[in-house]
Amino acid sequence: MSGREQRLAELKERVAAVAPEDAYRLAQGSATLLDVRDPEEWAAGSPRGG
Question: Residue 30 and residue 45: Cα distance in Å, rounded?
Fold first, then answer.
């Protein structure tokens, strides 16, 4: 496992993933949406307002 892959694995253990619907709802409140998708995922579409 590369250093980058190891770091991503560590971060995934500490940061909760949320469903798109939940992210949208949370962003309507006080939460900040941080989109960390890969370029290929970004090309597939982006959140409303993104």
Answer: 24
Say how many C-beta atoms besides its own lie within 10 A of residue 24's C-beta. Answer: 14
Domain residue extents for the chain: 3-43
Taking phi first (over 0 means left), then psi (-120 to 50 degrees means alpha), and beta for anything else, what does residue 33 get?
A: beta
> Residue 33: what pLDDT?
79
Cβ–Cβ < 8 Å for 18, 26: yes
- For 27, the token pair is 């962003």
Q: What is residue 43's predicted lDDT score, i.e. its pLDDT? A: 87
State percent of the chain over pLDDT 90: 18
Q: Which two tokens stand for residue 36?
A: 């960390």
Q: Residue 49 above 60 pLDDT?
A: no
